[in-house]
């Protein structure tokens, strides 16, 4: 068994791991990067980039299908599934190539391939070939899509999102389990590309939304286009011919069995922390097995072990993973002088249509931290000028601010240009702006952002009329 000694060992070569490795090296420490799988981040290989390639193809098809509403007739629309997936895979491979090139540029002696497992708080075993002795560690092992064992038993046509991007052609039909970001993005894209899609949701949730009014609008918007079965769960999956028999059950106990080419499990991802030998580290862990850590420093307890990215299950998104990795790597390099790093205002975007965005504090969070102490303003996009011009006049924006101070706290929305509006409003939160200061900003005409101004004006009105006992939290629990 080879013995390798280093100052910082980084486990995982995804976004968080690579950023953590570079930060540790920049801090003047000797560091190694350990990876058990192929190089390439979740985002580039099976996440945000290939999904946006599929969404872009779906948007092109949808534009042709809806052109007649503008009086423009494009003729018969033909979708070449093989060509769609060829472009998705080709561009995906290009993005992955950039990541692999970055890793290839690291010194060979800094890279180690194999599965890492803690033997103790300062030792790792890599497969059966190497023991790594290190002073500090960064755990950046990412996450894996969840597929229940009873579904997986039905065979290879039960898949998770990673498998979609290796298809050679578009299938005839897909059942999607889950109304989160992944399920809705992929489900809507496949539907617009001519695939028969049914989406099953155990509850009434839509992506990351928690505001009950925005949720109602979002559910209606999704139902206008898609076959979404809210409050319906998949209870049985069986292989049937060249596809699957999927049995679902609604809240009344009524069951229905339908045939699909695939079942796409989009019910969440599980942090990859269960085969790392964490029981040998002495770290305190939560009921999911994730080490307890400080979200400002990424430090696990008072140890020399740091955890970053999807592995810690705190805002599992690429920008957050990069920030996590930087904080963890810098603190591993300077340990024991651990310092808080930059944590940015939360911002999450779902690239459905209408788009969905949450920024700053969510409605459900404010119902806990600011119950009775925050006001709500809103705007519907149904009659918003620019939105109607574009025939994208669906959705709602709800904005939140603190009584007395007038400080802007956050927002939730579904509607046009949410990816852009989300940035503007999250910047306002991070800058600590008041609603009055935001209303002093320029607004052009005609733009979708005028809807933001309408919502802020409504919010300003409510801030001036603080109720004595009323609380805006219609339901202060997380959305079903």
TrEMBL record:
Necessary cofactors: FAD
Top enzyme class: oxidoreductase
Domain FAD/NAD(P)-binding residue range list: 7-322
Record Pfam families: Pyr_redox_2, Pyr_redox_dim
EC annotation from Swiss-Prot or TrEMBL: 1.8.1.4
GO MF terms, alphabetically ordered: dihydrolipoyl dehydrogenase (NADH) activity; flavin adenine dinucleotide binding; NAD(P)H dehydrogenase (quinone) activity
Positions contributing to NAD(+) binding: 178-185, 268
Active site: 445
Source species, domain of life: Bacteria
UniProt KW Nucleotide-binding keyword: yes
Key words of the record: FAD, Flavoprotein, NAD, Nucleotide-binding, Oxidoreductase
Record-annotated disulphide pairs: 43-48
Cofactor binding notes: Binds 1 FAD per subunit.
Transmembrane annotation, as ranges: none
Chain positions recorded as FAD binding sites: 52, 141-143, 310
Entry-linked Gene3D superfamilies: 3.30.390.30, FAD/NAD(P)-binding domain, Fe,Mn superoxide dismutase (SOD) domain
Domain called Pyridine nucleotide-disulphide oxidoreductase dimerisation: residue spans: 349-455
Coiled coil: none
Similarity annotation: Belongs to the class-I pyridine nucleotide-disulfide oxidoreductase family.
Protein name, entry field: Dihydrolipoyl dehydrogenase
Organism: Duganella alba
